[in-house]
Amino acid sequence: xQWTRTHLPKSRAQLEQFVKDNGLHPYGVADYKGREIFLxxxxxxxxxxxxxxxxxxxxxxxxxxxxxxxxxxxxxxxxFAAMHDLEEGWTQEAKHDARIEAxxxxxxxxxxxxxxxxxxxx
Length: 122
Known about the structure:
By secondary structure, the chain is of the alpha+beta class. 29% of the residues lie in helices and 30% in strands. The chain contains 2 helices and 4 strands. It has a 4-stranded antiparallel beta sheet with strand order 1-2-3-4, sandwiched between helices. The longest helix is centred in the last third of the chain and has 25 residues, at 92-116.
């Protein structure tokens, strides 16, 4: 994903278009403390064989809040090697679920930090 400060979405409609334009597949929305966490994931990417010889996935989160007129407050992504948790013997579905759960947890930590520093009300 190529993100720049000038190419970040500023509304929910732009966020949805941004997800599509960047080859992400929307996964769903989780609610946490009055914030919506939008989730999306790429298909298996193979463009960095020196770093990820078997490919990798990018899973993204974006946070919006009703009090911000649905503007995107923040977001980021995680990268997972395609062979992550190989020793666990997980199915592809279990790996996908683990990626989504890790992504949700990252978004929750971001929201909690924003509450802690006073940017958001609890």
